[in-house]
Amino acid sequence: MSDGLIVIGASGHAKVCIELLRDTGQHVSFCVGGADSGDICLGVPVLHGDEHLEALARQGFRRAFVAIGANALRQRLAAAVRALGFELVNAVSPRAMVSPSATIGHGVAIMAGAVINADSSIADLAIINTAASVDHDGVIGEAAHIGPQCGLAGNVHVGPRSFLGIGSRVIPGVSIGADVVAGAGSVIISNVAQNARIAGIPAKTMRKKAP
Ligand SMILES: CC(=O)SCCNC(=O)CCNC(=O)[C@H](O)C(C)(C)COP(=O)(O)OP(=O)(O)OC[C@H]1O[C@@H](n2cnc3c(N)ncnc32)[C@H](O)[C@@H]1OP(=O)(O)O
């Protein structure tokens, strides 16, 4: 069995995650990217195509991290990787502040400067991006992405696969459904239904594009 770690993805998000993993003393052996990925990602050799995962599992690799920004795709790939027998590790910056009473799932990324406060829960595959904060009793759903510099007040719930764009703000007690997209700088002051696309101050449903 190999101690080395496989990162799925070879993009900008993967670069940040590779550095987080290195910061915690972990060695990334290979990235698995798409056909159009480069050959090297931050010094890590890139294999092209998901079919390489099966071969890596046969070679004894057992630990993986899915570094894909797109939420639904990250969730699908994680299921495939787990089915091959890989364990999903976390990439948590030593420069993040994670409360000892918070619960953190598997395959989670928490970037530098992020703060996760008391009794919060961060589900599998969530991303808490650079300098974002999740205050007390927050609940972040599976494969959700809290963008850089977002500020979530206490008791905010974010559903699975939802994305809050950079610099969004959420007042206390708000519940955001699954698969929501909130534009950069949204100020969210009331509950949001699943699949909604919202933006603005205060955040409102975005106009549909003309066909
Ligand atoms: C480390 C990292 O990089 S992590 C990644 C962080 N990424 C982000 O934060 C991205 C956030 N993305 C956004 O805010 C995008 O604008 C989205 C997803 C909300 C919308 O993107 P699109 O679907 O392409 O919408 P589009 O650009 O066509 O805009 C549609 C309308 O919404 C408006 N709009 C778009 N974004 C916003 C916003 N954040 N706030 C207010 N209005 C907005 C546009 O002005 C446009 O208005 P109009 O119809 O009156 O002209």
From TrEMBL:
Domain spans labelled PglD N-terminal: 5-79
Signal peptide boundaries: none
Superkingdom: Bacteria
Record-linked InterPro entries: AcTrfase_PglD-like, PglD_N, Trans_hexapeptide_repeat, Trimer_LpxA-like_sf
Pfam families attached to this UniProt entry: PglD_N
Family as reported in the entry's similarity comment: Belongs to the transferase hexapeptide repeat family.
PANTHER family: ACETYLTRANSFERASE, UDP-N-ACETYLBACILLOSAMINE N-ACETYLTRANSFERASE
Name of the protein this chain belongs to: Acetyltransferase
